[in-house]
Amino acid sequence: MSGPFVPFRQFVLKVHSRCDLACDHCYVYEHADQSWRGRPRVMSPETVSWSALRIAEHVKEHGLERVHVVLHGGEPLLVGAKRLGEIAAELRHHLDGVCDLDLRIHTNGVRLDERFCDVFAEHRVKVGISLDGDRAANDRHRRYADGRSSYDQVVRAVGLLRQRPELYAGLLCTIDVANDPIAVYRGLAELEPPRVDFLLPHATWDSPPPRPSATAYADWLIAIFDLWYEEGRKIDVRIFESIIRTSRGEPSLTESLGLQPSDLVVIETDGAYEQADSLKTAFAGAPETGLHVLSDTLDDVARHTGIVARQLGLDGLCDTCRACPVVESCGGGLYAHRYRTGSGYANPSVFTADLLKLITHVRGRTTMPTHALPYSTIDALAAGYGEEADVARLAESQRSVRRALLAAVNAAGRSVPEAWDVLVGLDNDHPEAVEAVLAHPYVRVWAAECLRDGGDAEYLRNIAAAAAVRAGADVSLDIAIIDGSAHLPSLGTLDALPGRAARLRIEGGSFAVEGRERGAWRPTRRITAGDLSLALEDADPFRDRHQWPAAPRLGERDAAAWQEMVERAWRMIETDHARYAPGLRAGLTTLTPLAPGPAGRDVSSTARHAFGAVAAALPADPATLALLVIHEFQHVKLGAVLDILDLYDETDRRLYYAPWRDDPRPLEGLLQGTYAHVAVTDFWRVRRLDAPDQGETHFARWRAHTAEAIETLAACGAMTQVGDLFVAGMRRSVTPWLSEPVPPDAEEAAARSARDHQAKWIVRAEN
Question: The Radical SAM core domain covers which part of the protein (predicted)?
Answer without folding.
Answer: 5-238
